[in-house]
Design a protein that fits this description.
The chain is α+β, with helices and mostly antiparallel strands and 404 residues long. It is 49% helix and 15% strand. The chain contains eleven helices and ten strands. The longest helix has 35 residues, at 252-286. Residues 147-237 form the Acyl-CoA oxidase/dehydrogenase middle domain.
Length: 404
């Protein structure tokens, strides 16, 4: 067979143009359904959130119930879950949705993550069929908002030490305790609350109208201002026996929920980073100093190049983890890898973008400082930097550094 071919070699084919918005050609990894999901959420965010978000952030108020119903109509609540009105989307599609939502604001992505990846996921995976039928269809539609009560005032990174407890009283359960930093708490119709029992840590689906339950709003935040954050107070809340989630005993239940939510953060953080990077890139091409655009100076180009590398590496990492999740091969340690890297790099991208915008970088006319302050919360919740470092350290060495 001749080594010569009448067909042009692959190397001789014309290359596609370089796309500054997708310099690595990551879109080539996405199928048409992935792109359709991404574009639908992107269009909704541009139409519904971006025109209002600076005002919501400045006022510290957001129309959560209205947005939840709209997100439910999009199919964005409980996306990867099957049945009960949920979309049954792939993990990659859910990740793309998180990226686009957080490109608008971390608070909007948090609304979706807590609703779907924590509250709905807990009921879907660990709840009884009756609990699933009672709660999930309304939650998928955004008619019922859920929250997830694990963190306490004195127990964040070490949930095993939680003080919230539930005791049996005849056939009932009686819950007492406090939970802190709870997204959606003050607007929720159901709270998934984790508590110590004589049988170990158990989860409960708590109707928020139950006597003894209250969810005071946490105010005076400088981060995630376009998000409802609350304390949950349970003062001898009496629940029937069927309120307990039958499929979970011990910490594995809530921790598996956190793994699911952390996966969304791996994608979402890159949305905040992308929005900030794009704002800085556009600014650098139009802002003039010394008689030319600042994007023409070497130092500015170095900043843009370095942060483009980290941004798109982070998106590639998120996609890789999504493919593994869809294949049933994603380990919690790998999610820690993604959360640790992507949130940390996203903050640095935002900070560098702020320097390119100069004084304008602190203005709400641009998204950069809003994303940077939001990411300070994202860096802490669902596991701090230090906790994910120790998760990876244990996985790498086989030695547990959590307890001395």
């Amino acid at each position: 067979m001749s080594s010569q071919s009448s067909q042009p070699s692959r190397s001789a084919r014309p290359l596609p143009p370089f796309d500054p918005g997708d310099p690595l050609g990551i879109d080539d990894l996405l199928d048409p359904e992935d792109l359709a999901v991404r574009d639908t959420v992107r269009d909704w965010s541009a139409r519904r959130v971006l025109p209002e978000i600076a005002d919501w952030y400045e006022r510290g108020e957001v129309p959560v119930r209205e947005l939840a119903r709209e997100l439910g109509a999009l199919g964005a609540l409980g996306m990867p879950l099957e049945g009960y009105g949920c979309a049954g989307s792939s993990a990659v599609q859910y990740g793309l949705a998180c990226l686009e939502l957080e490109a608008a604001d971390s608070g909007i992505r948090s609304l979706v993550s807590v609703q779907g990846s924590l509250a709905m996921y807990a009921i879907h995976r660990f709840g009884s069929e009756e609990q699933k039928q009672r709660w999930l269809p309304g939650m998928a539609a955004g008619e019922i908002i859920g929250c997830f009560g694990l963190t306490e005032p004195d127990h964040g990174s070490d949930p095993a030490g939680m003080r919230t407890h539930a005791k049996r009283d005849g056939s009932d359960w009686v819950l007492s305790g406090r939970k802190m930093w709870i997204t959606n708490g003050s607007v929720a119709g159901v709270a998934v609350v984790w508590a110590q029992t004589d049988e170990g840590i158990r989860g409960f689906a708590v109707p928020t109208g139950s006597p003894g339950f209250s969810a005071p709003l946490i105010k005076h935040k400088w981060s995630l201002r376009a998000s409802v954050t609350s304390e949950l107070v349970l003062d001898e809340v009496r629940l029937p026996a069927d309120a307990v989630l039958p499929g979970a005993t011990g910490l594995k239940g809530p921790l598996s929920c956190l793994t699911h939510a952390r996966y969304g953060i791996v994608w979402g953080a890159m949305g905040a980073a992308r929005a900030s990077f794009e704002a800085a890139l556009e600014y650098a091409k139009t802002r003039e100093q010394f008689d030319r655009p600042i994007g023409g100076f070497q130092l500015t180009q170095a900043k843009l190049a370095d942060k483009a590398v980290e941004l798109h590496k982070g998106i590639l990492l998120a996609h890789h983890l999504g493919v593994r999740m869809d294949a049933g091969r994603l380990r919690p340690e790998q999610v820690s890898f993604g959360k640790l890297n992507n949130v940390r790099e996203a903050i640095e991208i935002c900070r560098t973008a702020r320097t390119i915008l100069g004084a304008n970088g602190i203005s709400l006319e641009y998204p950069v400082m809003r994303h940077a302050t939001n990411l300070e919360s994202v860096l802490t919740y669902e596991g701090t930097v230090e906790m994910h470092q120790l998760v990876l350290g244990k996985a790498l060495t086989g030695l547990d550094a959590f307890r001395g």
